[in-house]
Amino acid sequence: MASRLLWASRAASCLRISVSHRGFSTVLKDFKYCDSHEWVKVEGSSATVGITDHAQDHLGDVVYVELPEVGTPVTQGEGFGAVESVKATSDINSPVSGKVVEVNEELNNAPGLINSSPYEKGWIIKVEISDAGQLNSLMDADKYSKFCEEEDAKH
Amino acid sequence: MVPAAISTSPSVTSCPSRRLSQRKSQSYCRTVSTMSNHVSKSTLSVSVNSIADPDSRTCECFDLHNELVPYGKAWAWQKELVRQKKASIQSGGDCPDTLIVLQHQPVYTMGTGSSEEYLNFDTKNAPFDVHRTERGGEVTYHGPGQLVMYPIINLRNHKMDLHWYLRSLEEVVLRALLSAFSIKASRLEGFTGVWVGDEKLAAIGIRVSQWIAYHGLALNVTADLTPFQWIIPCGLRNRRVGSIKGILREAYSSINCGYVDVLIPGECHLVDIACDALIEAFAEVFQLEVCRKPLTEAFLMGKSF
Fold first, then answer.
1. Domain A26-154 falls in which CATH fold?
2. Contact by Cβ (8 Å): B78, B207
3. ipTM score above 0.85
4. Which residues of B touch A111 (CB under 8 A)?
5. A76 in Cβ contact with A95 (< 8 Å)
6. Residues 6+ away with beta carbon under 8 Å from B250
7. Counted domains in chain B
């Protein structure tokens, strides 16, 4: 088990992923995070949004994703969709304000992508950001890792 | 296919509203010992203190268990309460939790990802209203004789863990069934809800928005279960739906008791007992001091929707 952990940590550092020592919740270094456990990857004025590994782990198997329509405005901190896992549906909140330009239709057929690939294939929406300054209020990878640890420790 | 004879008159009409007595919930059916040989022990326990903490938070309770509330009204009321709580939290304040207990007129409700394949009728020609809601879970039926509990609680003040919350709601029902009726119900791993054997007595489905949870649970007490036959309840094809009344009747019949109808209390009384037990168990499991609010306040709120 120890050697597997070591291998995983080495692989993780090659991929520039920091591995939390509690239960393997991954956090990607170049992404930004908010305290409701969504991530955002910014590329110019476009942002891709999803929920984090920590969030999907706590949710359990995602059975349904409620997606917004393309063109819907989103506001930082407010819900734009929902994920359902075993009798509980929870809001997904947008880390940024802007307009939805693309949604991941794959999630209609394969909601489990959020569990298996929360940062890649499980992306949820792409947003044209209206206020780049909002990114400053989000957490970086290290801060988010610490936030998760503190949250888990409380409960 | 629409069933031929649809009785919309509830088997339990609105009981003459009575003031809630101060009596403790009676533990009924002492003569009925183990309810079922095939009830599996609850495999998932929730660690809670059994004695209320003197510093426990308060929860306002609107007890409308003798009222048949239209689904739409209750739904709008919940959403308004959620909105108020969010606003309160946003402005830096806090908010007490709220508990609503009521019965509904006959209605089907569906969850966010619910499939219409679990309806045995065409939605354009449905036997009752069908509401597609924002809760989790598949289709279910609500109607007279079924107690519905809507806790609207801020999980930030409890545990920010949806699984814990679902297990806790199950725990509320498990404790109520045991304390009031000596029914040893159980969980079924992988199937949220409360079961006696392969019969589901209570269904659960929730929505969480910024850690405010709403929707809740429904426990069949004396409900006519026929409307469940017109759906695949909760999307589970090989399971049945049960009720407290059904379990009690079965238990008495199995001990060859010829006086089943005399010994089981009247339907209104069963509902009263179940309601008191649920509220008491809720207070215990969530470590809340439940403060019952006058019905007039509830109706005033309801009238604005």
1. OB fold (Dihydrolipoamide Acetyltransferase, E2P) (2.40.50)
2. no
3. no
4. 113
5. yes
6. none
7. 1
Q: B167 near B174, Cβ under 8 Å? A: no
Say yes or no: B204 contacts chain A, CB-CB below 8 A.
yes
* Closest by CA position to B143, among listed B280, B298, B271: B271
Domain boundaries, position B275: 57-241+266-293
CB B64 within 8 A of CB B100: yes
pTM (predicted TM-score): 0.79
Q: How confident is the model over B243-260, as pLDDT tens digits?
A: 999 999 988 887 766 666
Q: Are A41 and A48 in contact (CB under 8 A)?
A: yes
Whether residue A51 contacts residue A118, with contact meaning beta carbons closer than 8 Å, is answered with yes
Task: Tell me the C-alpha distance between B144 and B13, whole Å.
Answer: 7
Q: Is B82 on the interface with A (CB under 8 A)?
A: no
Token digits for B186?
Answer: 């159980």
User: Which CA distances in Å does A104 have to A26, A70, A99, B136?
Assistant: 21, 10, 15, 21
Q: How far apart are CA A72 and CA B18, in angstroms?
A: 49
Burial of A21 (0-12, 13-18, 19+ CB in 10 A): exposed
Concatenated DSSP letters for B62-92? EEEEEEEE-HHHHHHHHHHHHHHHHHHHHTT
Q: Of the ranges A24-33, A58-67, B90-99, B261-270, which one carries the lowest mean pLDDT score?
A: B261-270
Q: Which two tokens stand for residue A148?
A: 């998760």
- Do the chains contact at B209 and A79, CB–CB below 8 Å? yes
